[in-house]
Design brief:
This protein is mainly alpha-helical and 608 residues long. 61% of the residues lie in helices and 1% in strands. Strand 1 and strand 2 form a beta hairpin. The two termini are 38 Å apart. 61% of the residues are buried.
């Protein structure tokens, strides 16, 4: 579901001290998870890894810092004031219906309609029920696509454009330079994009993120990390603090687009477990970390261990749903969502509950639950998170006007929220406003260059067809390879990203190898689609067809899957089914991809 933003009301990132500043060459950098130093920045590590083709393990090891003595000292922030506690902080979580005390300064919202479950929301049990249109602020509705909804001032737009021009000068560079430049951008200032969902033809679609959006209110995450670092230097035996710091690093890896945070997160969580074996916040953190690295079997194991200690752990309940979804165990995921809904109803569970229903084709229930969650959300993080999920759901159904309305709602709450910025650009492209779409997607990749937006921007360049655009597109695809190298160096399984991007814009054999490896680990609709398409681009359509049909078997409304199935059916000689699949794709979402939709229309015309 919409993986979240740490950005504030401006495009400038709040400082998080030593964790986000790009070190100068040869300078030492504090390792917040251990209070020690390392002589190598993430950018340097990735540059060396890419240029010398060093093994991923060596790069990861180079980033590991030595722990400081337990008696390290630093000034401690005022107790409870400087550190805003993440959803699963050091304190044990309370059962459903219990109310936690909150600091007046805490900007995180109460869970929507405390004690109200998704099933009750679905059934209309919420007292103040309103249609989707009424849940959206009139001012947000009035803003036209591409207008001032994103709140970026002219001077910032000009700066982004200058950066974009500078970035396009990289086109002559080799992959090693791309990796180094990408790592610098990730470490120095990228902001959250969000959970990758089903946008274009090269989606690394995933289940909802494991971290509550409550951490994502303006500045909360970075401020919490800074305060936690200071606190743990003074109180190095605080196992709950180490667990919270580990969870914050996981979210920072996501929000900064910097996988080098994952080893730091692991060290912090491991230290928490050494201090207090089997404490549930750290176990839940290990589940979230495993999921972030695409180790979903490990995520399920750690989530179950955490729930054995604390059956009401919101983070563990959420991670368990995520793991089951990403392992393709949809019936079990549905049951897990029901259990989580009974124990810890709230935005993190509601969004997962809705996504599980969407995967089974129950769009009506998914929309109803999300609309009710939005109508009760009060914090900026929750509003942006849920409104973006609704925008994505609407876009998947080809409802572009509704999608833009929800994205405007998200951006009215947080004008730097990248899932909404990306979604708005995608919807603008689907409506034919390619200029606005390209401007918007350029802003996204300047700050958060992950595979999906990079591929989407490349395809927008290709579809525009102007002079120089093919090279611009190739630049974006090259950066996908750079991101994959960076991710693998930090323990992330990137086979699905590789398979999806390489099948359309890279090495067909590499795509098939990666897709097979991913299918061996997990059988989901997304991995089935990736394997089917990789087999197709390698000319093996008869082998591809069963996987393409499996990808569409759950009823999940995904035009890209239907398009892939139709093209494969046509290549396999099944003209009748090909026409039906291609027509279904275009009827569902006629602008699902700048290149894919065009190819679908061409193939459908040829099949008549």
């Amino acid at each position: 579901m919409p993986e979240e933003s740490a950005g504030g009301a401006t495009t400038e990132e709040p400082s998080v001290g030593a964790t986000t500043e790009k070190p100068s060459a040869g300078a030492t950098t504090e390792d917040p998870s251990a209070g020690a130093t390392t002589e190598e920045s993430p950018a340097d590590a990735v540059a060396q890894q890419s240029a010398a083709a060093a093994p991923a393990e060596e790069s990861a090891a180079a980033a590991t810092a030595k722990e400081s003595p337990a008696d390290a000292r630093a000034e401690e922030p005022a107790a409870g004031a400087a550190v805003k506690e993440p959803p699963t902080g050091a304190a044990p979580e309370k059962p459903a219906g219990a109310t936690a005390k909150k600091s007046p300064a805490d900007t995180t919202a109460e869970e929507p309609a405390a004690g109200t479950t998704a099933k009750e929301l679905q059934a209309g049990a919420v007292a103040q029920e309103a249609p989707a249109q009424e849940a959206v602020a009139p001012k947000a509705l009035a803003q036209a696509p591409g207008s001032g909804a994103d709140g970026v001032r002219d001077e910032r737009v000009a700066a982004v454009r200058r950066l974009s021009v500078s970035g396009r000068r990289w086109r002559a560079a080799q992959l090693g330079f791309c990796a180094a430049a990408l790592a610098v951008a990730l470490t120095a200032g990228a902001v959250v994009l969000g959970a990758v969902r089903d946008g274009g033809t090269a989606n690394a679609a995933a289940a909802p993120v494991a971290v509550s959006p409550q951490l994502l209110a303006s500045g909360d995450l970075d401020a919490s990390i800074t305060s936690l670092q200071a606190h743990l230097r003074a109180q190095p035996k605080d196992f709950g603090g180490w667990a919270t710091l580990g969870l914050a690093y996981i979210e920072q890896a996501r929000t900064k687009g910097d996988p080098s945070r994952y080893p730091q997160a692991q060290r912090a969580l491991d230290r928490s477990l050494r201090l207090r074996p089997d404490n549930d916040p750290a176990l839940a953190g290990r589940a979230a970390l495993a999921a972030a690295r695409h180790d979903f079997h490990g995520a399920l194991t750690y989530a179950d261990r955490a729930l054995k200690q604390n059956p009401y752990s919101e983070r563990a309940l959420s991670s368990r749903i995520d793991a089951l979804v990403e392992l393709g165990r949809y019936d079990d995921a549905s049951k897990a969502a029901d259990v989580a809904d009974q124990r810890r109803p709230g935005v993190p569970v509601f969004t997962r509950y809705a996504y599980v229903r969407e995967l089974r084709g129950d769009v009506k229930t998914a929309r109803r639950v999300l609309e009710q969650a939005l109508s009760t959300a009060t914090s900026r993080g929750d509003i942006s998170y849920v409104a973006s999920a609704l925008g994505q759901l609407a876009w998947n159904q080809g409802e572009y006007k509704a999608a833009l309305t929800y994205y405007a709602r998200a951006l009215a709450a947080d004008d730097s929220y990248l899932p909404a910025l990306e979604g708005r650009a995608r919807a603008q492209a689907a409506q034919g406003d390619s200029a606005a779409a390209i401007r918007g997607m350029e802003q996204v990749v300047e700050r958060f260059p992950l595979p999906q937006p990079l591929v989407e921007l490349g395809e927008l360049y290709e579809a525009r067809g102007k002079k120089g655009n093919p090279q611009k597109a190739r630049d974006q695809y090259a950066l996908v390879d750079a991101w994959v190298a960076l991710a693998r160096a930090n323990g992330v399984n990137a086979d699905l990203d590789t398979a999806l991007a390489a099948a359309d814009h890279g090495d067909a054999k590499a795509a098939l190898k990666a897709a097979r490896a991913e299918w061996a680990r997990r059988h989901t609709v997304h991995t089935a689609d990736a394997l089917a398409w990789a087999l197709h681009v390698n000319g093996r359509d008869k082998d591809a067809l069963p996987y393409a049909r499996r990808a569409t078997a759950t009823g999940y409304h995904n035009a890209s899957f239907l398009y892939h199935r139709g093209i494969i059916e046509r290549a396999a000689g099944d003209a009748k089914d090909a026409r039906a699949s291609l027509k279904s794709a275009l009827d569902l979402n006629p602008g699902f991809s700048p290149l894919g939709a065009r190819e679908a229309r061409t193939a459908l015309g040829a099949a008549k």
